[in-house]
Amino acid sequence: MLDGLKMEENFQSAIETSASFSSLLGRAVSPKSVCEGCQRVISDRFLLRLNDSFWHEQCVQCASCKEPLETTCFYRDKKLYCKYHYEK
């Protein structure tokens, strides 16, 4: 089991080295999506797109009460709100 983890680490470093090498050659590197909520790169398998911005699934929460927004959300000033806090 540990050998498999080590192999994945080596594989990941090979990909990173390859990406660095290709950027030295002038090849375009695909842009990374940045989460609007936390400003970190989204490396998750899934991401959410809301109003032309990308979000981690766990970052989709009300800016006031921090409750997860699972069915609906309201957007103002680059922040997400539940219906209750949006109307205030």
TrEMBL record:
The keyword Nucleus applies. Keywords: DNA-binding, Homeobox, LIM domain, Metal-binding, Nucleus, Repeat, Zinc. Gene3D superfamilies: Cysteine Rich Protein. The keyword Zinc applies. One of its GO terms (biological process) is neuron differentiation. One of its GO terms (molecular function) is DNA-binding transcription factor activity, RNA polymerase II-specific. It comes from the Eukaryota. It holds the Pfam family LIM. Residues 33-88 form the LIM zinc-binding domain. It is found in: Nucleus. GO terms for cellular component: nucleus. Its main location: nucleus. This is LIM zinc-binding domain-containing protein.
